[in-house]
Amino acid sequence: TTLVAGFFRPDGATIVNIGDSRAYRISREGVFQISKDHSVVQAMVDRGELTPAQARRHPRRNLITRAVGTDAFVDCDIFEVSVKQGDYFLLCSDGLTNTVDDAELHRLILAAEDAGSACRALIEAALKNDARDNVTAVVIGPYEGGAERG
Predict the structure, then answer these.
(1) What are the residues facing 3 on neighbouring strands?
(2) Interatomic CA distance for residues 93 and 3, integer angstroms
(3) How far apart are CA 8 and CA 138, in angstroms?
(4) What is the tens place of the pLDDT at every residue in 78-115?
(5) Phi, psi of 131 (to 5 degrees)
(6) Could you give the CA distance from residue 37 to residue 17 in angstroms, rounded to a whole number?
(7) Is the pTM of this model over 0.85?
């Protein structure tokens, strides 16, 4: 399985990921992917063999190179992120990101009345777009000196 997790503090956040579950920071300015997929296709993007747009549709996009449960110890990536007033954070599975693009993530999260309704809207959009994988979403925010969780 894959993992994405976050520890949120008043001055920032620590994000951890293994596999292709992702973390994003969403603000009025846009959607910013924090984590980096551990996948065959991401390695192809890193080597310049594919563009990010090509990677979204590549038939091998779900082949991961790191996963929880494959070995006794698995390397994870750790990201330290600053937190600004009005920021949202999205922790999600690839069932969401394979079916809902960044523009729609941005629109749905900023339009939601709270973090819980943002999660419901994201999951509904993924299912409406014929998600073929687990769809998981956790929205944290908006940050106002403390984090609201939904």
Answers:
(1) 18
(2) 8
(3) 13
(4) 999 999 999 999 999 999 999 999 999 999 999 999 99
(5) -55, 135
(6) 8
(7) yes
